[in-house]
Amino acid sequence: MHPARLLRAAKEAEKVGSRLYLPIVEAIRVDHIQAARDAFESLDSVDAFAVQVNAECDNLIKILESAQHLEEVSRGAENKIISKGEKLACQYMAALLEDRGCPAQYVDLSDVIKRYSVPQLVKESAYKELAKALGQEVLACGDKVPIITGYFGHVPEGLLHSIGRGYTDLCAALVAVGVQAAELQIWKEVDGIFTADPRKVPTAKLIPSVTPAEAAELTFYGSEVIHPFTMEQVIKARIPIRIKNVMNPRGPGTVISPNPVVEPLAVQALDRPSLFRCRSRPNMDALQAPQRPTAVTIKHSIIVLNIHSNRRTRAHGFLAKIFSILDKHHLSVDLISSSEVHVSMALHSENSMLSGDNVDVIEDERLQDAVTDLAELGVVDIAANMAIVSLVGQQLRNLKGVSGRFFSVLGENNINIEMISQGASEINISCVIWARDADRALNVVHTSLFQFLE
C-alpha cells in the first residue's frame, strides 16, 4: 500500500475536530479484505486475514485519535502510522503464501528494538546489535518463508526524516548482516545500474558491476541506486549487493561488490591512510586505470549561490564564515568552486526554493535568511534552474584526456558551463549547467565519451 493515504490520514488527525481520517482508514480496511477475497482460494484464509486487518485498522484509529487529542502527529506517531501499511502488506503476503500451500511466517519487527534492548541508534555499535537481533528473528522462522516488515521501531528524528523512504532497504541490509547472507538483493523497477538514465539515453548500457564508492557517488548525484548508509552496513560485512528488476527477474542485474580485487586502492587507503598522496610514475602505472568512465548522471533542482567578497583580498576566515552561515540555516552544498575573492556553491533541494515569473522570488525561509547573513560578507547573487552533470568512475583522475573531452563535448554542443568541480573526489568530475540543457548534455556526453574511449 502506498503511504500517501496513511500520511493523508495523519494530516487530517492534526485538524481539531476533523473525523475525515475515518473514511480513509475504512477504505484501507475494505481494500485489503477485498484483495484477499479476490486472490485467496480458501474462505477460512480470508476470514483469518480479515481478523488481522480489522485489528490493525482499529489500532490505527486509536493512534490517530491520540494524535488528534494532542493536536500533533509526532515523529514517533508518524512512524507507527506509516508502519501500518507495511504490516498489512506483509500479513497479506504471508496469508496468500499459506493459502497456496507455501509455509510462511509474518515477522513484525516494530518492537524488536525494545525486546532485544538495542541501544539508541546513534552509534555504529547499535546498528550491529540491531542486525544481530533482526537475524535472530528471521532465523527463528526455520523452514518457513519469513515475510518481514521494513519498519523496525522508532529511531531518533523518525525513519522518514532521518533515513527516508529507503529505510526498508536498510532493514533488508541489516537482516542480511544478521543472517550472514551470501548476497543481498534489492528489487526495483529497473534492470540495474546503467551508464546513463535509459529513459533519456537510448544507448545506455547495463553495468555488470560497480564499486561501493561508485554506487554512493551515483546515488548522491542523481541516480537512484541505494542509500549510502544502507550500502555501508552490507559492504562492511563483505556481502555483495545485487540490484534487480521485479519486472525482469531473469535479468542479471548489477552487483555492488565488496571484493578487494575490484577496488584494492580504496581498501588500502581505508586500512592504511596516508597524509601524502604519492603520484610518482610507478605508482601511477600501478593504478590500472579503467578504459572509460562508469556512468554519467544528472542531478536536477540546483541553484548556484555566488558570493563576491567586499575586499580585494580574502579576509582570514572568509570561507569559514560562509559555511558557518550555511550550517546555521541547515543548507548543504553539493559543489563548491572558489577563487581569491569569489565563491560559487551549488545547492540542491527537493522542494522549490524560488518562485516568480523569472524565478526571482525566494520562497525558502532558510535560503532567505542565509542570503541576508551572507550579504554582510559581500555581494550575493543567485542563478536558478540549474543542474549538475557528473561523470563517475573508479580512478577517473587517472584516465588520460577524460576531463578535456568531457568539457569539450559540452562546449562543442553549445552547452554553457556555470561552474566546475574536480579534485575533491578521485571518482567524480562535475559541472553545473542550465537545467534546460540537462537531457541534451546527458546524451552528448554519453555518446561522445563512451564511444570515444571504447
Key features of this structure:
alpha+beta, VC0802-like, 454 residues, Four Helix Bundle (Hemerythrin (Met), subunit A), six-stranded antiparallel beta sheet, 14 strands, 43% helix
Spatial strand sequence of the major β-sheet: 8-9-7-12-14-13
SSE sequence, one letter per element:
HHHHEHHEHHEEHHEEHHEHEEEEHEHEEH
- In CATH's first tier, which class of the domain at 295-452 applies? Alpha Beta
Mean pLDDT: 85
Considering the protein shown, what is the CATH homologous superfamily of the domain at 295-452? VC0802-like
Please give the alpha-carbon distance between the first and last residues. Answer: 44 Å
Q: How many strands in all?
A: 14
Task: Determine the fraction of residues in helical runs and give it as a percent range.
Answer: 40-55%
Percent in strands:
15-25%
Radius of gyration: 25 Å
- Reported by name, the CATH topology of the domain at 295-452 is VC0802-like
Please outline the major beta sheet: 6 strands, antiparallel
Weakly predicted, low-confidence segments: 261-271, 280-287
What can you tell me about this protein's structure?
It is built from 16 helices and 14 strands. The chain is α+β, with helices and mostly antiparallel strands. Mean pLDDT is 85; it is low at 261-271 and 280-287. It has helices spanning 4-13, 21-39, 43-70, 75-99, 112-115, 124-139, 159-162, 167-178, 212-220, 228-235, 264-271, 281-286, 318-328, 365-374, 402-412, 438-452, and strands at 104-107, 145-148, 184-188, 209-210, 241-245, 254-256, 295-309, 333-338, 342-348, 354-355, 361-362, 378-392, 417-422, 428-434. The strands form four sheets. It has a six-stranded antiparallel sheet. Strands 3-5-6-4 form a four-stranded mixed sheet. Helix 2 (21-39) packs antiparallel against helix 3 (43-70), helix 3 runs antiparallel to helix 4 (75-99) and helix 8 runs parallel beside helix 10 (228-235). Among the domains are: 1-97, Four Helix Bundle (Hemerythrin (Met), subunit A) (Up-down Bundle); 295-452, VC0802-like (2-Layer Sandwich), CATH 3.30.2130.10. The radius of gyration is 25 Å and the shape is globular. Residues 391-454 form the ACT domain.
